[in-house]
Every structure is written in structure tokens, then in C-alpha cells.
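Dear colleagues,

For the upcoming journal club I promised to circulate an example of a predicted protein-ligand complex. I picked one with flavin-adenine dinucleotide because it came up in last month's discussion. The inputs are reproduced below in full, followed by the predicted structure.
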Amino acid sequence: MNRKLDLRTGNPVWTAYRAPPVPTGKLTRDIKTDVLVVGMGISGAMMAEALTCDGHDVVVIDRRGPMKGSTSATTALVQYEIDQPLTMLSSMIGKARAVAAWRRSRLAIANLSAHLDALGINCGKAERPSLLLAGNVLGATGLREEAEARRAAGIAAEYLTRSQLGDRFGIERDGAILSPANLSLDPRKMTSGFHRAAQQRGARYYAPVEATGFSSSSSGVEVATDTGVVINAGHVVLATGYELASVVPATGHRVVSTWAIATRPQKLALWPEKAFVWEASEPYLYLRALPDGRVVCGGEDEDFQDETLRDELLPAKTERISNKLNALMPGLDCRAEYAWTGSFGTTSTGLPIIAKVPRHPRIHAVMGYGGNGITYSRIAAELVRSELAGHRDADAALYALPR
Ligand SMILES: Cc1cc2nc3c(=O)[nH]c(=O)nc-3n(C[C@H](O)[C@H](O)[C@H](O)COP(=O)(O)OP(=O)(O)OC[C@H]3O[C@@H](n4cnc5c(N)ncnc54)[C@H](O)[C@@H]3O)c2cc1C
């Protein structure tokens, strides 16, 4: 598998909004630190913030610079409703583990929201309900069962019949699950906010710097970089997104392609409650509104990694997403003002892998995010923070490397 990716192409909507800058320095001599975080995207930001909160001395590096990877391409539906429905995940990994994974995601969203408030990070955060529409993966009966399974696990979910869905949201489908309190936000503003909080606590940021080699001992890790400078770290966290570092096994991880568009602002044409909408279908469509009334819509995922083909398909996929959006929401102006495409790492269960690297007990890898990457970045920060504090998180086994 290719470990260096062309992560995204096109014009993501976030370029329309300014995020506070994250200053970085030049790395000119060998340095030491408690923890080296590799990656300045959402995952690295949450990780650096969490670890500096516990008083660790933290260095963060990135071969591109802050927020220049997948983080700039995300559509940022920050949901505890993970891609794999609870009923389907139960048949894959067993009910107890599936329920634990769903509950952990619910907890992560609540924790993330509270933490953004506590730090005063201004990223336009707002709670949004979401609608999971009946489709070819789960029809009306499947959704009814899914809603019951979620409620039995203590996770709020209301099944809406066709007429309830039409009356309340003006959407025509056989049924839907309505869920409360997912998060809408600007991902770059959030990421920059976490990075800046870490910097205020003394974290040192260097870019562009690429980690090229890892040599582990019982007391730490010596990290070689493309600048020739060596970083000696007590622990390393690989928050490298979908680009896996050389020491990380790629077992269970695969890369697929996805596309997204954003329309012009149209506040008055938006649907009720500005709910997130996604389909229980393959390929699926999902959408959200931005505070200025633009509609972001994505999906059409394809199971290949070829970046040239991915980019060539951008015009055709833009048209297709725009047409599908129009069919679902005929009252909107669905023409794309922004269109972009990106690669997307995932696993067979949809759960991420957050684990120590085999034979490198002081290197922690965070990988295979799927469609709920932001939720999983938060869980990763919580797991690694516990690990470095000397406790094993009760849910750590859910995210272990596949055997
Ligand atoms: C189109 C699209 C839509 C999405 N929509 C959603 C969504 O709605 N909700 C959701 O939760 N998630 C979504 N995701 C997923 C989400 O965007 C990702 O999970 C998230 O951005 C990953 O952040 P990251 O920090 O792990 O990776 P990145 O942002 O890619 O950051 C990793 C960084 O590591 C650096 N790096 C890599 N290797 C090295 C090295 N060896 N040395 C130094 N630096 C290195 C890279 O340069 C990069 O900057 C979407 C993704 C895409 C592409």
C-alpha cells in the first residue's frame, strides 16, 4: 500500500472562511521531548492539546504544515452515529462490543462539545439533529430495528414513518431515524483552536518536517527526519491520518475515494432544524448546512485509491452529487460553488485502529478513520492520554490492531 498519498484535490469550502493561523518554527538542531506528535491535522491537534493538559512536554511536526492534509477536505458532520449501524456492527463483532463502541462515540461527542466550550474555541459549534434515511442498506424495517437497538443501549433514537418524515422535514422516504445532538462546526477553526491551546501550554511546532525512521529502545524512540535532525522522544504518537508511517502495519486498513460539493449561501431555502441528513445506502449521500446557508453534500464513495482516476472523476461526481441533492431537496439551488475530492482510510468494521505499534511499545498509532474520523480523533486523544498517564482505557480493546 502507498504510504504517501495525494490526500485531496479541488476546492474545499473551508477556504471561504478564515481560521486563526498556527505558527510553526524551523527545526535546526537535535531536540528531546516527552512526546512527539507526528501530524498537524485534527488528530494531532486533539492529541497535543490533551497531552499538554496533563503537563507533558510536547513537540508536533508535519511534513506539509498545519491543517494541510485531510482535515481541510472534511465535511465535518461530527456524529456519534458511526457509519456501521449498531445492528450490523453487532453481527460483525458481537453485541456487547458493538454497544460499547456506540456508547463510546456518544461519550466522545459529549466530551468534545464540553471541551470546546471549556477552552472557548470559537468554531461555530452547534448541536444538530440528524436523519438517517431508509435506503438500500437499511430499509424501513431495518431502521425500526436499528432505532430499537440503539434505545436498548441507552442511545436516543426516534423512528419516523414516511408521513412523520414528510410532515416534519419535507423529505420523501420510507422512514428515518431521528437522533439528537450531533455537532456541526468548522473543522479548521476547531483544529487551529486545539493547536493554539497546546502552543499556549508550551508545545513546540515545527514544519515542514517529515518523520522518516523510528528506532525504539526501552526508554524512548529516536526519530529520524528528512531535515537530518533527530528527535528523541519518550513516546511518539503517529497522528498521520491516512498516510501510515513505515513502522505501522497496514493490516485491516484500506484507502477509498470520496467526493463533496458546497452550494451558494441560501439560508431561506434550508430544510427544518438544519438536521444532518444521510442515507442508509451504498453509495450514500450525506448533507449538512453551514451557518451562512451553504449546503455541503458528499458521498458517492468508490472502493479504489487511484488518485489520478479519483481526480478525473471530479466533474462527473460533482454533477451526480448535485443531481442527487436536487432529487432529495428540490427547493434548493444545488449547483456546486465548491467541489473537491479526497482519499479516505477505513477498516472492515468502520472502527478505527488506535494501538501501540508491534515491537515499538512507545509508539502509538491512530489510523483507519472512515466517515467518523473526527469522533475517532477525540477517542484517540482520550485513549493515548490515559495510556501515558499509566491507565489502560476500558474501551482500548475495541480499537486494537486486528490479529
Ligand atoms: C471528503 C471527506 C469528507 C469527510 N467527512 C467527514 C465527516 O463528515 N465527519 C468526520 O468525522 N470525518 C470526515 N472525514 C474524515 C476526516 O476528515 C478525517 O478523519 C480527519 O481529517 C483526519 O485527520 P488527521 O489529523 O488524522 O489526518 P490529516 O488531516 O491528514 O493530518 C495528518 C497529517 O500528518 C502529516 N504526516 C503524514 N505522515 C507524516 C510523516 N511521516 N511525517 C510528518 N508528517 C506526516 C500529513 O502531512 C498531515 O498533515 C472526511 C474526509 C474526507 C476526505
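Two points we might discuss: The longest helix spans residues 95-119. The mean pLDDT is 95.

See you all on Thursday,
B. R.
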